[in-house]
Specification:
With 366 residues, the chain is of the alpha/beta class. It folds into two domains: 166 residues, P-loop containing nucleotide triphosphate hydrolases (Rossmann fold), CATH 3.40.50.300; 179 residues, 3-Layer(aba) Sandwich (Rossmann fold). It contains 13 helices and eleven strands. A six-stranded mixed β-sheet has the order 8-7-9-6-10-11, with helices on both faces. The chain has a five-stranded parallel β-sheet with strand order 2-3-1-4-5, sandwiched between helices. Helix 1 crosses helix 2 and helix 11 packs across helix 12.
Length: 366
């Protein structure tokens, strides 16, 4: 399981279950915890919250001694056990970076006849250290020492399958964005009516798509969107329109968000699929005389980077197109293997979420 939606679905269908967050500092655990709490009724036991309630402060270097740390963890175990005993699900929010720390939590769950999973937020060490550096320059969360981060890295024990582990990959290709704290919702346009008499960039949405988009626009998770960007293509602009109307925002057309530019010849489905596979797997190929995949990816990255740089700690919606989004998300994850199949599984109106260049929710169902 490597998808935030899958984790949400599991929680929604669970009872009396402990979900143990696990990951390095700056891996994105706080964001995942927030999303899980937004979309489920899970209770959260947070070490940071207990830490702060007891008057400790990372930024002021006011830290607990060994005995005080143990008291904090003991309180968290008590809260976890009591909440599980009520039949509720519990999200335990801490690094939980050793197998021993996770074993201790499993004992708490077992003592009240509960079950447990580990939600492992997997991020590269490069990403973690990059985020630590950015947070030093522009603090958006408590500042911890690099020595503590490195100690946690050195001690980290990756969860194994026997721990009922759910892996959410947060690998980042860091040249994409600065750490501006933005959350970017990236939406593929709605389904179109194929019309060989006009260029693909002018294709219109199907009548059924309007209802789908109207329903999406009022979803709770989009309520804090403060900016909407789209390509110049008709289908993307019409996809963004209901969000703008509901949120009272202008839809901004941004150069560079367009689909990979195709040649002018209309292709049968078979011809289109064959050409698409070649363009995605041989990304400097342009047999139809259009744009290469690498050319499209480069200008898309530039456009998203500019958008990201113009906002701080904002939630942003970008509407774009299937092929260029397959390239973009594959780039962020540094994984172009099976990209044709990855593209095939990006549905119309599919949504992905990116924060500081890290994929938090994949846009493909692969």
């Amino acid at each position: 399981m490597q998808n935030l939606d899958d984790a949400i679905n599991l929680i929604q269908h669970s009872q009396k279950t402990l979900f143990i967050l696990c990951g390095l500092p700056y891996a994105g655990k706080s964001f995942i915890a927030k999303e899980l709490q937004t979309h489920t009724d899970i209770a959260c036991v947070s070490i940071d919250k207990i830490f702060q309630e007891r008057g400790f402060n990372w930024n002021a270097n006011l830290l607990p001694n060994a005995e005080e740390w143990q008291d904090i963890f003991n309180q968290s175990y008590i809260e976890t056990g009591e909440t599980l005993s009520e039949g509720k699900n519990v999200l335990y929010d801490s690094t939980n970076h050793t197998s021993a720390s996770r074993d201790e939590l499993r004992k708490v769950s077992t003592s009240v006849d509960g079950t447990s999973y580990v939600i492992y937020i997997q991020a590269s060490i490069e990403t973690v250290l990059k985020r630590w550096e950015e947070n030093q320059k522009n603090p958006t969360r408590p500042v911890v020492s690099k020595e503590l981060v490195q100690t946690t890295i050195d001690m980290f024990e990756e969860p194994t399958e026997s721990e009922n582990v759910i892996v959410i990959n947060n690998f980042s290709h860091n040249i994409i964005m600065n750490n501006n704290g933005n959350t970017i919702y990236i939406l593929r346009h709605g389904e179109t009516i194929k019309d060989p008499s006009i260029p693909a960039i002018e294709w219109k949405l199907t009548p059924e798509t309007s209802g789908i988009l109207d329903a999406m626009a009022v979803e709770e998770r989009f309520k804090n969107i403060t900016a909407i960007y789209t390509s110049s293509e008709h289908k993307a602009q019409k996809t963004a329109e209901p969000f703008g109307l509901h949120l009272g925002l202008d839809v901004i057309t941004k150069d560079g968000l367009e689909e990979v530019k195709r040649g002018s010849t209309f292709l049968t489905d078979e011809e289109f699929q064959r050409l698409k596979r070649e363009n995605l797997e041989l990304r400097d190929s342009n047999l139809d005389g259009g744009e290469t995949a690498n050319q499209a990816l480069k200008r898309f990255i530039t456009a998203v980077s500019v958008i990201n740089s113009e906002h701080q700690n904002a939630e942003i919606l970008i509407v774009s197109h299937g092929t260029v989004l397959a390239l973009f998300f594959s780039y962020l994850k540094n994984d172009f293997e099976n990209i044709f199949e990855y593209w095939q599984n990006i549905e119309f109106c599919a949504l992905g979420i990116v924060k500081d260049g890290v994929v938090f929710e994949d846009i493909s169902s692969t």
